[in-house]
Design brief:
Layout: H1 3-7, H2 15-28, H3 38-54, H4 57-146, E1 151-156, H5 171-179, E2 184-189, E3 196-201, H6 204-213, E4 223-227, H7 237-252, H8 267-270, H9 277-304
Antiparallel strand pairs: 1-3, 1-4, 2-3
Helix pairs in contact: 2-3, 4-9
């Protein structure tokens, strides 16, 4: 109980001021004036205890010290409560920030997962579209390839393994011989098998003309075989041997007069072979592989750009 507050005076009030305040307060709650008021009696008793304690200097000093100690404790409690309240507020703020960060992280993770799924879906669609495009291009190429014929002539001549001149034939000689019949798409001389080459013409007329006309060098004639559709004919082996024998006889006898091709057809101009199924399939596969390789490289170049 704060006795100074009870009496209505300041803590530094003099004893005379305290005594005066006691007299005024006690008159209002004296038992004789309030015989039936128990609260007034209790109030008068408190006032009596207060004036008794404060009238003793030592007791008042001890009381003042206890009051001061309580105030200091209360102040410390107030400061502690403020710190505790601040600490609590900071803790709650950090928890709230953590919750928000966690929520943002969860939201971010959800968004990333959503974007990843959408990206996978778009990538799958792009891959499917690209596959369909490649398949379409391959089908178009196959269709175009199936409708395009290759007019290839297989060339053979006699040569020895140790002959550095390769029987008198090389790329320039063969190109000069066959280029006069039309545009040449490709001319290849076999390096593995001597005396063998292949020439491809851009059109059928040029290939047929070369097949029927070109005989090569007189001393080492060419054997030609057309590698395209079934209309090509092939002379019999006996006819080949007979004609070769006749040609060899004329050459051995030193006859410089040319053979009568009007009466005796030249075997080297009439030989027209039909391409076997195996050779046709190999050539077709090679052409198809090269074309698809070119298409894939073009697609890669488009993707990089």
């Amino acid at each position: 109980m704060d006795l100074y507050e009870l009496l209505g005076v300041e803590p530094h009030a003099t004893f005379a001021e305290i005594k005066t305040a006691y007299r005024k307060k006690s008159l209002t709650c004296h038992p004789d004036k309030n015989p039936h008021n128990k609260e007034a009696v209790a109030e008068f008793y408190k006032l009596s205890e207060a004036i008794k304690l404060l009238s003793d200097n030592k007791a008042r000093a001890a009381y003042d010290e206890s009051i001061a100690a309580k105030k200091r404790a209360k102040e410390r409690s107030r400061e502690f409560d403020a710190k505790r309240r601040k600490f609590k507020d900071d803790l709650e703020a950090r928890e709230e920030a953590f919750k928000r960060a966690k929520s943002n992280e969860e939201r971010k993770r959800t968004e990333i997962e959503k974007l990843r799924k959408e990206g996978d879906k778009l990538l799958a669609e792009e891959i499917l579209i690209e596959k369909q495009r490649i398949q379409k291009l391959c089908k178009q190429f196959d269709k175009k390839e199936s409708s395009t014929k290759s007019f290839i002539i297989k060339i053979r001549w006699h040569t020895q393994e140790d002959d550095p001149s390769n029987g008198g034939y090389n790329y320039n000689v063969l190109y000069k011989m066959f280029s006069k019949y039309g545009d040449i798409v490709a001319l290849v001389i076999s390096s593995a098998k001597k005396g063998t080459a292949m020439v491809e013409f851009a059109n059928k007329n040029a290939a047929e003309t070369a097949l029927l006309t070109q005989i090569g060098l007189i001393k080492n004639p060419l054997k030609l075989r057309g590698l395209w559709d079934g209309s090509q004919k092939r002379t019999s082996a006996n006819s080949d041997i007979g004609q070769l024998s006749s040609t060899d006889t004329h050459l051995k006898n030193g006859i410089s007069k040319p053979l009568n091709f009007a009466s005796t057809p030249d075997i080297f101009a009439q030989v027209r072979y039909k391409m076997s199924n195996a050779e046709c399939e190999v050539l077709s596969n090679l052409r198809r592989a090269e074309e698809r390789k070119r298409l894939i490289e073009e697609l890669k170049a488009e993707d990089e750009t």
